[in-house]
Please model this.
Amino acid sequence: MLNARHWILGSLLGLCALTLVAAPGEVSFKRDVQPIFDHHCADCHGTKKQKARLNLSPETAYQELVNMSSAEIPSILRVKPGDPADSYLWQKLEHTAKKGSGMPKGWFWAKNLDQKDMDTIKAWIEQGAKP
Ligand code: HEC
Model:
């Protein structure tokens, strides 16, 4: 016989499944992307230094990235909404850009972001690089 306990357990499992399906979800620039820049990029692309004329501080990052020409290869946009492969930011993070080093640049060699952070930035661009 199906008692209340089974019922509750069943509902809980159902909820978990729903959460899993919805997991990738919509990426928010402020909530998900900006903290990655704050953490890994601000030393060189912040209020004190703006390497390659790029300031990734919360006040300026979005405006300086989306639909803006890159400094190193002006024919490529830093972020082309919907198209990571053709976005200079993504090429730098993937270490495939034709100029300069991969990002985040380190003292001796270029580092890589965690896969989770890479996935977040890629999904943000794919979803249209919304503010
Ligand atoms: C240790 C300093 C340093 C750190 C940390 C760093 N960068 Fe850079 N970045 C540079 C320098 C220097 C350049 C220009 C020379 C080059 O590309 O190698 C550059 C260039 C860039 C460019 C090219 C901009 C353009 O318009 O041409 C992008 C995009 C970029 N960085 C993104 C990032 C991101 C995103 C992070 C963090 C994940 C990051 N960088 C971390 C030093 C740094």
Summary: Helices lie at 4-21, 29-40, 61-65, 88-94, 115-126. Residues 40-41, 43-45, 51-52, 54, 70-72, 78, 88-89, 92, 100-101, 103-105, 113 surround heme C (CB under 6 Å). The first helix runs from residue 4 to 21.
